[in-house]
Backbone:
């Protein structure tokens, strides 16, 4: 592979509070590669478009210090059918080699993130690279780590889906040729990566940290946990007809997500949860807890 071009797509809607930090984290990447940055705005009514235009002008006027081999900056603001639709449209425009979508409240971990990713794709015959991330709050302060320390099919589907989307980089043809399931509003990314892994895509899991994933009460990840559990059942039914397995998975997810959010401060629940977790892993994966 010669000089790599990264196609980074950012879907956004009324994210003026965060999108500037996201844009800067992309444009600040340094290394021997090119960046094609595509921002798909859903017709925001806040200051998002003004911020997007600001960095377009800085690049055109040569006032932004480009630290890679070149940046092509594209954006579009129009109504779409949701996040999955915006991402698909963005990658339809993409002409790069490696793709990733970075939501408008997430950021790359450091200025060297894409340089590290490029190194792996240059040295190894892989189509998908999966790294770790850190969790940040609304103010950008670290609140935890997200480690994808194993890829286990049953765990991904029936227990704890754990691929961090902004830390997953993929050869562009897989993003163009594998449409999202638009029935899924909250879990389309999980469905996408599960389908890829089931198809036998060549992937590599690494311990490098690639992104900062923002979690706060208004995010889709937290605010719609019950809906995420319901959508996960659609994904599960694609891979099994076992009522026992589906029932066990639903009970586990409802308990671990919904009940823990509502009653997470309960001492009894905090005491019991590790044992319940191990029991369900034993039932579904066959090991006492994560492998």
Residues:
């Amino acid at each position: 592979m010669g000089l790599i071009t990264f196609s980074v797509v950012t879907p956004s809607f009324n994210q003026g509070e965060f999108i500037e930090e996201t844009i800067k984290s992309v444009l600040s990447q340094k290394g021997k590669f090119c960046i094609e940055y595509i921002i798909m705005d859903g017709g925001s009514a806040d200051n998002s478009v003004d911020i997007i235009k600001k960095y377009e002008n800085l690049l055109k006027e040569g006032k932004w210090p480009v630290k890679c081999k070149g940046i092509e900056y594209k954006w579009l603001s129009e109504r779409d059918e949701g996040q999955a639709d915006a991402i698909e449209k963005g990658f339809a425009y993409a002409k790069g080699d490696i793709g990733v979508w970075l939501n408008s409240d997430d950021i790359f971990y450091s200025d060297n993130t894409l340089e590290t990713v490029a190194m792996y794709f240059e040295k190894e015959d892989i189509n998908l690279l999966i790294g770790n991330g850190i969790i940040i709050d609304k103010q950008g302060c670290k609140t935890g780590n997200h480690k994808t320390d194993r890829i286990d099919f049953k765990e991904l589907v029936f227990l704890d889906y754990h691929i961090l989307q902004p830390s997953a980089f993929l050869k562009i043809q897989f993003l163009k040729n594998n449409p999202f399931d638009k029935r899924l509003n909250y879990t389309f990314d999980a469905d996408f990566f599960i389908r890829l892994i089931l198809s036998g895509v060549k992937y590599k899991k690494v311990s490098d940290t690639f992104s900062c994933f923002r979690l706060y009460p208004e995010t889709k990840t937290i605010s719609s946990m019950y809906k995420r559990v319901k959508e996960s059942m659609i994904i599960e039914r694609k891979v099994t007809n076992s009522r026992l397995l589906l029932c066990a998975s639903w009970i586990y997810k409802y308990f671990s997500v919904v009940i823990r959010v509502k009653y997470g401060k309960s001492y009894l629940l905090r005491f019991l949860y590790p044992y319940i977790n191990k029991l369900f892993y034993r039932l579904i994966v066959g090991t006492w807890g994560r492998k």
